[in-house]
Design a protein that fits this description.
Helix content is 34%, strand content 22%. It is an alpha/beta fold and 313 residues long.
Length: 313
């Protein structure tokens, strides 16, 4: 177990770190044949993206993930070092390949379909969580994605609750969002997209009002802060005392991958610095807009100054 005697408060981020392979069509897609476009390879993974954004905002951040003992894993760890992420607790497995995410984007930059390989995350077991309980106990806040196994997620909630550490969750995808449903009453903040919110709330969402209703349902289930991203329609949020809608910012969409991760990280940053929830969410929308305009899954120029420069007043 690595040394946990860190000098300053840190955010602990657990979940996927992998390689993103993204193909964006330059013309409408035609099934059954190839379509002209661009193909890019970059580091990614929901947890890694959140951690990367936090580090760029100046937050001491520990990424707790698993990678393979391969070139892709080395690329992820090298990139993390360049950003300033602490990866001392990342597991390097000789028996697994590093996670990979294969995405197909249409000519507008929006996701059409994707395939992911997250088997290496099976290394993050409930036993590993218990062995690192001091790391959890001393965190200022925890962020997880639901690519982790159900048993590991359960263990994380148990340990976080034992030590009264606020835990935020990014559902990652509609397929794995259900893993969070048994733990809604223990979640400090959750940031689903529309499809994930429908899975978690059992509400049908057709418009902004439906989304606010779903957010309130999740608050009633025990989540303290709910933020639902609605793509071009912006975001809605709800707490026990407030709710609202913030429209999206006008931007050219180059690639939608990672936009919601940047929003999650930026809201966490705002809450850690005692920003009001509405300001934190507005900063998150600003971060998402900046990320949408990037070819990478994280905006390399991200900073608090840049967020305020693009902020909706």
């Amino acid at each position: 177990m690595a040394d946990i005697s860190l000098a300053q408060p840190y955010v602990l981020v657990l979940g996927a770190a992998g390689i993103d392979l993204k193909g964006r069509a330059s013309v409408p897609l035609t099934l059954g044949t190839s379509t002209p476009g661009t193909v890019r390879v970059s580091v990614g993974g929901t947890a890694r993206n959140v951690a990367d954004n936090l580090a760029r905002l100046g937050v001491e951040t520990i990424l707790f993930s698993a990678v393979g003992d391969d070139d892709s894993g080395k690329q992820i760890l090298d990139n993390a070092a360049q950003v300033g992420l602490n990866t001392d607790f990342c597991i390097v497995s000789g028996g697994h390949c590093t996670s990979a995410y294969l995405a197909l984007l249409d000519e507008t930059g929006n996701l059409v379909m994707s395939v992911d390989d997250m088997e290496v995350l099976s290394c993050l077991t409930p036993q590993v969580v218990e062995e690192n309980r001091d790391l959890i106990r001393n965190a200022a806040m925890i962020v997880i994605d639901s690519n982790l196994s159900e048993a590991t997620i359960k263990a994380l909630f148990r340990v976080a609750r034992r030590y009264k550490v606020r835990l935020c969750a990014d559902p990652a995808s509609g397929t794995v969002a259900t893993r969070l449903k048994p733990h809604l009453a223990k979640i400090f903040m959750i940031t689903p997209n529309l499809a994930e919110a429908q899975v978690l709330s059992d509400c049908t969402i057709k418009d902004e009002n439906d989304a606010i209703t779903a957010a309130r349902c999740l608050v009633n289930a025990g989540v303290e802060i709910v933020i639902i991203t609605l793509a071009a329609e912006g975001v809605v949020y709800a707490t026990a005392n407030a709710s609202g809608h913030i429209p999206s910012m006008a931007t050219e969409v180059i690639d939608a991958t990672g936009a919601s991760d940047s929003l999650t990280a930026t809201v966490v940053f705002g809450l850690l610095n005692d920003f009001p929830i509405d300001e934190s969410v507005r900063l998150g929308v600003s971060a998402a807009a900046l990320t949408l305009a990037c070819t990478e899954s994280v905006c390399g120029d991200l900073s608090l100054e840049l967020l305020y420069d693009h902020l909706i007043i």
